[in-house]
Amino acid sequence: MVVSHSRALAEAAVALAAGLLPEQGVEVRIAAGLHDGELGTDAVAVADAIAAADTGDGVLVLMDLGSAVLSAETALDLLDSPVRVRLSAAPLVEGLVSALAAAGGGADLDAVAREAEGALGAKRAQLGESADAPSSGYPQSSTGVGPVDDSATEIFEVTGEHGLHARPAAELVAALRDFDATVALRNATTGAGPVPADSLTRVLTLGVLPGQELEVRASGPDAARVVAKIRALVENRDHDQHR
After folding, report:
1. Do 54 and 143 belong together in one domain?
2. Among 79, 118, 72, 78, residue whose Cα is nearest residue 95
3. How many whole angstroms separate alpha carbon 180 and alpha carbon 142?
4. Rounded to two decimals, what is the model's pTM?
5. Residues 111, 10: one domain?
6. Which domain holds residue 149?
7. Is 97 within 8 Å of 24 (Cβ atoms)?
8. How far apart are CA 214 and CA 158, in angstroms?
9. Residue 77 above 60 pLDDT?
10. How far apart are CA 140 and CA 157, in angstroms?
């Protein structure tokens, strides 16, 4: 759910996220602006939107500025029935895209909130700042001492005009839902990673540019198939790059 002072801003953010990640099957609600079209937030409208968005799995609320936070906090006191709600400090646009990717992949509320709140990692990495990363994103066995059986590893060049930027990264994350495999990615050119491939925020921190090499490691029954799928996605980016 998006709480903003501006209806136009909220609608644009939702449109961007939906454009990058179509057909996620995730309810996204907006509570933005005042009834007269002026800038502002309305706690009653926020409460109504939270109640409408609740399907029993919980609601993540993303906000733009300070009084939006206040309205969201007040809205929690106005709810007629209990709703599991998380108010997120995530950046509005990046957080929304990351949250939508995670929720569309079946993550629970806590995991969706973590994805949203880590959404600035990719920007930090691109700007040369430190970004939080897991100690190892490679698939591990149940004992944690090495790769499991049915594993596949491949390194290939990313040939898309803009590398693995937001849209292809989002498509890659979404495509993995169809496979029974655990996947990790590493920028073999810069050494960034490894990161879990089902996390959009982590994939973007790799900063994979055109001509760089992507290392894919997968384990599980569909390991070979998922590696082939990722190859097809990152090597066929001549279309749709400017959307």
Report:
1. no
2. 118
3. 16
4. 0.70
5. yes
6. 130-235
7. no
8. 7
9. yes
10. 25
How many CB atoms within 10 Å of residue 32?
25
Q: Which residues are 4's β-sheet partners? A: 32
Same domain, 180 and 75: no
Question: What percentage of the chain has pLDDT greater than the value 70?
Answer: 86
Answer with the residue of higher pLDDT: 135 or 67. 67
Q: Could you give the number of structural domains in the chain?
A: 2
Residues with catalytic function: 165
Q: pLDDT tens across 155-184, in order?
A: 988 887 777 777 778 778 878 877 888 899
Q: Which of 210, 165, 168, 170 is nearest to 189 (CA)?
A: 210
Domain of 177: which CATH number? 3.30.1340.10
Do residues 94 and 136 both lie within one domain? no
Alpha helices by DSSP H, the chain: 7-20, 43-53, 66-78, 92-104, 109-117, 121-126, 166-175, 200-204, 223-235
